């Protein structure tokens, strides 16, 4: 039986500003990447989301990001590897505190937004993230874009690497994600997202924006939790994977 993880970015509400349908999404996914206060989230949101994920047996990961609340962490910043190392440790420590208090533990780390894309192509930044994880807890898994510098950096330092692909994002012919600022970069049609996810999971391939077919190895599929159609997409995707006989399970789960 084909097996794959289904992850979602959650815990992105901040103060009175509410984003996403976290509770319902946690009933669909097997892993949750929780905002740690830099691009989204706050201490109360982190606490609530950790508790909700723990109650459902969903694997908890730190969604570490650039310090950019106004831009939701999707704007690139000029940061040094030393700064990336420190900000990764800072966010890991914050989420770890809530997980420990809830009787849970962190399972993985996934950079968010601009930091994710920067580390996918910049080996120095990727190495900084990996070094922070190794110094904090080398048992943590590293989620990164399949075929990227981040995945290579993690594997090179002995971390368990989880190659990620996207159900709701378009790919360029070189295997990178189409920038969000371009039309059509985000797939908001449930049938199209499910079809792309199934092709990735079953065939290890995806159709790029230029019409070519590219190979994509994926241990986990990401579905973003911040879109207005996120819950409908997630439910449709889960139903499609289940119907195709694909087992949904977090990495390391028996």
How does this structure look, described?
This protein has 254 residues and is an alpha/beta fold. The chain has one domain (3-248): Glycoside hydrolase/deacetylase (TIM Barrel, Alpha-Beta Barrel). It is 39% helix and 18% strand. The chain has eight helices and ten strands. The protein has helices at 22-25, 43-56, 81-101, 113-121, 123-136, 149-156, 190-203, 230-243, and strands at 3-10, 31-35, 59-63, 106-109, 141-145, 161-166, 205-207, 213-215, 220-224, 247-248. The strands form two sheets. The chain has a seven-stranded parallel β-barrel with strand order 1-2-3-4-5-6-9, surrounded by six helices. β7 (205-207) and β8 (213-215) form a beta hairpin. α3 runs parallel beside α5 (123-136), α4 (113-121) crosses α5 (123-136) and α7 packs across α8 (230-243). The radius of gyration is 17 Å and the shape is globular. The mean pLDDT is 95.
- H and E string: EHEHEHEHHEHEHEEEHE
| Beta-strand content estimate | 15-25%
| CATH class designation | Alpha Beta
* Number of helical elements: 8
Anisotropy-based shape: globular
What distance lies between the first and last C-alpha atoms, to the nearest angstrom?
13 Å
| Uncertain parts | none
Radius of gyration: 17 Å
CATH architecture: Alpha-Beta Barrel
Structural class computed from helices and strand pairing? alpha/beta
The neighbouring-strand order within the major sheet is: 1-2-3-4-5-6-9
| Secondary structure tally: strands | 10
- The total domain count is 1
Mean pLDDT: 95
User: What is the makeup of the main sheet?
Assistant: 7 strands, parallel, barrel
* Percent in helix: 25-40%
Please identify which CATH superfamily we are dealing with: Glycoside hydrolase/deacetylase
């Amino acid at each position: 039986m084909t097996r794959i993880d289904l992850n979602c970015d959650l815990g992105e509400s901040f103060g009175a500003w509410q984003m996403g349908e976290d509770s319902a999404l946690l009933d669909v996914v097997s892993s949750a990447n929780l905002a740690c206060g830099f691009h989204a989230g706050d201490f109360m949101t982190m606490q609530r989301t950790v508790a909700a994920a723990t109650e459902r047996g969903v694997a908890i990961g730190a969604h570490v990001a650039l310090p950019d609340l106004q831009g939701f962490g999707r704007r690139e910043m000029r940061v040094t590897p030393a700064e990336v190392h420190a900000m990764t440790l800072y966010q890991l420590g914050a989420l770890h505190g809530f997980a420990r208090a809830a009787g849970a533990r962190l399972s993985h780390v996934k950079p968010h937004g601009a930091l994710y894309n920067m580390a996918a192509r910049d080996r120095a930044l990727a190495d900084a993230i990996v070094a922070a994880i190794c110094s904090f807890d080398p048992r943590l898994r590293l989620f990164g874009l399949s075929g990227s510098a981040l995945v290579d950096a993690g594997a090179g330092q002995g971390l368990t690497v989880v190659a990620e692909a996207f159900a709701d994002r378009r790919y360029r012919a070189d295997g990178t994600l189409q920038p969000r600022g371009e039309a059509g970069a985000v797939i908001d049609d449930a049938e199209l997202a499910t079809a792309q996810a199934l092709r990735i999971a079953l065939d290890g391939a995806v159709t790029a924006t230029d019409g070519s077919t590219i190979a994509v190895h994926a241990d986990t599929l990401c579905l973003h939790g911040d879109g207005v159609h996120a819950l409908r997409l997630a439910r449709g995707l889960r139903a499609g994977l289940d119907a195709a006989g694909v087992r949904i399970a977090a990495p390391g789960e028996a």
